[in-house]
């Protein structure tokens, strides 16, 4: 699942938007090269003081059945963090004030939070 070509994002495309709020964006992505499905969770926190909004993004490989459940609404986007159990996910953290995001592999269950 953790194929090198997924780092580049070249082959990974948006398949279906699940939630598209300004501070909480969840989508199903699909790799055009190997057909692997992913869920992408993006959370943003407005920094009213310094205008450096904190942004966090998690990309987790999911099965086709899990992608179908998300699209059909059988799986809440708030619950996808539980799917991380036993899997690696690509995490991008860009806290307020940082010059650039830190991108790294995480593993296990992760929290899904709605930004503001
Ligand atoms: Zn792929």
Give the tags.
116 residues, 2 helices, six-stranded antiparallel sheet, 6 strands, mainly beta, binds zinc ion
Explain this structure.
The chain has a 6-stranded antiparallel sheet with strand order 1-2-3-4-5-6. The chain has one domain (5-107). 23% of the residues are buried. The termini are far apart. It is mainly beta and 116 residues long. The longest helix is centred in the middle third of the chain and has 9 residues, at 64-72. The protein has helices at residues 5-8, 64-72; strands spanning 12-20, 24-31, 37-45, 54-62, 88-94, 102-107. Bound molecules: zinc ion. Residues 3, 5-6, 11, 31, 33-34, 36 line the site of zinc ion (ZN).
Number of domains: 1
Please give the largest β-sheet: 6 strands, antiparallel
Number of helices: 2
Small molecules (ligands, ions, cofactors) in the structure: zinc ion
Poorly predicted spans: none
The level of helicity is: 10-25%
Assembly type of the shown chains?
Answer: single chain
Task: Give the strand order, joined by hyphens, for the main sheet.
Answer: 1-2-3-4-5-6
What's the β-strand tally? 6
Alpha-beta content class: mainly beta
Query: Mean pLDDT score, rounded?
Result: 91
C-alpha end-to-end distance: 32 Å
**What would you call the shape?**
globular
Q: What is the CA-atom radius of gyration, in angstroms? A: 14 Å
What are the SSEs and their pairings?
Blueprint: H1 5-8, E1 12-20, E2 24-31, E3 37-45, E4 54-62, H2 64-72, E5 88-94, E6 102-107
Antiparallel strand pairs: 1-2, 2-3, 3-4, 4-5, 5-6
Bound molecules: zinc ion.
């Amino acid at each position: 699942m953790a194929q090198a070509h997924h780092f580049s994002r070249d082959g990974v495309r948006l398949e279906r938007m699940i939630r598209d709020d300004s501070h909480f964006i969840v989508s199903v992505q699909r790799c055009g090269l190997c057909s692997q499905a992913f869920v992408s969770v993006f959370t943003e926190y407005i920094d009213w003081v310094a205008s450096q909004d904190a942004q966090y993004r998690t990309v987790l490989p999911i099965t086709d059945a899990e992608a179908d459940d998300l699209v059909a609404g059988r799986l809440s986007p708030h619950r996808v963090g539980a799917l991380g159990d036993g899997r690696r996910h690509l995490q991008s953290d860009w806290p307020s004030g940082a010059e650039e995001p830190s991108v790294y592999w995480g593993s296990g269950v992760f929290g899904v939070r709605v930004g503001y």
